[in-house]
Design a protein that fits this description.
The protein has about 325 residues and is α/β, with parallel strands linked by helices. It is about 40% helix and about 15% strand. The strands form 3 sheets. The protein has a 6-stranded mixed sheet with strand order 1-2-3-4-5-6. α10 crosses α12. The protein is globular. It binds zinc ion (ZN). The site of zinc ion (ZN) has 8 residues, from α3.
């Protein structure tokens, strides 16, 4: 487990950055949000839309004599609920500007305005990936509960790749989510990396409903390309969405890639035994995963199958509408 080095603690202090840890109730553990004590203050990410998160956040602000109303800007690293869930509420309680990738904005509308389409999409791909009909509803049940963890919002400013805002350079690094953005302060030598690079847990690319008229992104293929790019960037001290800060992002990325490589070997071995659906692969990889969390297992299985397909190692075919893969 990486430790926060004394150097990084000092650096955060020097730049007036306060890390506040908020609960998520998810296997990933607490989420980090960062208060940047400038005039006016900036908040990076928000935590879930729950009373508990809101209370801990406002208490964390109060320790520094800051209120929500004082905020000048809120920037979100990506459109997952643990990072942008409270945004709608915080924007109502302040005059803060809000920044994020354009796809975060779409999600801000999407989460509550299109629950029916969202459900249809996931039940559809669960069926396509081979989830048995009798467990599809249960597999989707957590989503119904997750919906309350965020509420609609508007972004006042969009951050595209290469944009500069508030002293940060934005790098669009899709994969873990389609909206993942690094916020790099080149001058200070530090970066807010969201869930793109995590040292303490696996940043898994998750299946996501595509924007209307677009194809579902091949999340792991995208993620590996993004990692190859960010590996070459000068990120300095990395402040992640989960776990402690680290200063060796190249080593952390190499560990992520080698874990993925080992898992890919496992999938290859499973396919040698015979053709399989993504659901079957996910059950073999994660036999103990509760059905409500099958979305995570499916994301990983489909991710690897698509990476192997891109490399020409496997091919897909459909039997009665269900997707199967076999070695080439
Ligand atoms: Zn997260």
């Amino acid at each position: 487990m990486p430790k926060t080095s004394p150097a990084s603690v000092d650096l955060l202090k020097d730049h007036g950055i306060v890390q506040i840890s908020l609960p998520t109730h998810w296997p990933v553990g607490p989420v980090n949000v960062f208060l940047v004590k400038r005039d006016p203050p900036i908040l990076i990410d928000t935590g879930l839309h729950t009373d508990e998160s809101y209370e801990i956040l406002t208490e964390g602000f109060a320790e520094h004599g800051i209120t929500i109303n004082d905020l000048g800007a809120i920037i979100v690293t990506h459109g997952h609920r643990d990072h942008m869930g409270l945004l709608g509420q915080l924007l109502r309680e302040s005059n803060a500007d809000s920044y994020g990738h354009p796809q975060v904005r779409t999600l801000g509308h999407d989460t509550d305005k299109h629950p029916k389409e969202r459900k249809e999409f996931f039940l559809g791909i669960f069926g396509e990936f081979g989830v048995p009909a009798e467990t599809k509803e249960e597999a989707n049940s957590l989503y119904e509960r997750f919906r309350t963890f965020s509420e609609p919002f508007e972004l006042s400013h969009v951050l595209e790749d290469g944009d500069q805002a508030l002293g940060y350079t934005a790098y669009h690094v899709p994969g873990h989510s389609p909206s993942d953005t690094l916020l790099v302060d080149h001058e200070a030598g530090l970066s807010f990396v969201g869930d793109h690079i995590l040292a303490s847990t696996n940043p898994n690319p998750l299946l996501q409903r595509p924007e209307s008229g677009q194809q579902r992104p091949k999340a792991l293929v995208q993620y590996q390309a993004s990692l190859a790019r960010s590996r070459e960037l000068d990120l300095g001290i990395c402040l992640p969405g989960h776990g402690t800060p680290f200063d060796d992002h190249v080593a952390v990325i190499d560990r992520i890639l080698s874990r993925q490589g080992r898992r890919e070997m496992l999938v290859k071995k499973l396919l040698k035994e015979g053709r399989r659906t993504p659901y079957e692969i996910s059950r073999k990889l994660f036999p103990d995963l509760p059905i409500q969390n099958i979305h995570l297992g499916l994301s990983i299985a489909v991710g690897h199958l698509e990476v192997m397909e891109e490399a020409g190692d496997v091919k897909r075919f459909y039997t009665e509408g269900v997707l199967h893969f076999e070695p080439r």
